[in-house]
């Protein structure tokens, strides 16, 4: 199995484990971006705690699932978005206004689109979750 997009693999394994009703999901390899995206998803109440398990090659992340995710995935291509353009992408990737989050990489770090709106900054879209 080739690993072209580790973030996409992590999110799809979380979604698959969530759909079959597992209480935890293992994803590898671990990376700073994956950890930050998981942190944003956790802060918004979609997953429980997660921990990194070191094995010396790639490492694993063990994630506690809460059963709150209906769909999550990466956004490709990684669109640039200004702080006044979020609505267009909310319509495209989320179910309804105020339901779910877009995750984006900004100059101030990786955050949800709600935080980016508050701080009035744009960035590049990474993923969505609802």
Description:
Helices cover 32% and strands 30% of the residues. The protein is an alpha+beta fold. The chain folds into 2 domains: 6-65, Ribosomal Protein S8, Chain: A, domain 1, CATH 3.30.1370; 72-129, Dna Ligase, domain 1 (2-Layer Sandwich), CATH 3.30.1490.10. Strands 4, 5, 6, 7 and 8 form a 5-stranded antiparallel sheet that branches. Strands 1-3-2 form a 3-stranded antiparallel sheet, with helices on one face. The radius of gyration is 14 Å and the shape is globular. It starts with 5 loop residues before the first helix and ends with a strand. 25% of the residues are buried.
What's the quick description here?
By secondary structure, the chain is of the alpha+beta class. The chain has helices spanning 6-19, 32-43, 86-93, 113-119, and strands at residues 24-27, 47-53, 60-65, 72-74, 80-81, 101-106, 109-112, 123-129.
Overview features:
alpha+beta, Ribosomal Protein S8, Chain: A, domain 1, 3-stranded antiparallel β-sheet, 5-stranded antiparallel β-sheet, Dna Ligase, domain 1, 2 domains, 130 residues, 4 helices
Helix content bin = 25-40%
Radius of gyration, in Å, reads 14 Å
Distance between the first and last residues' Cα = 28 Å
pLDDT < 50 stretches:
none
Q: Largest sheet, if any?
A: 5 strands, antiparallel
CATH top level class name of the largest domain: Alpha Beta
The appropriate CATH architecture of the largest domain is: 2-Layer Sandwich
What does the oligomeric state look like here?
A: single chain
Domain count, please report it.
2
**Please, how many helices?**
4
- Report the mean per-residue pLDDT as an integer: 94
What portion of residues belong to β-strands? 25-35%
CATH names the topology of the largest domain as: Ribosomal Protein S8, Chain: A, domain 1
Shape annotation: globular
Q: Topology as H/E string?
A: HEHEEEEHEEHE
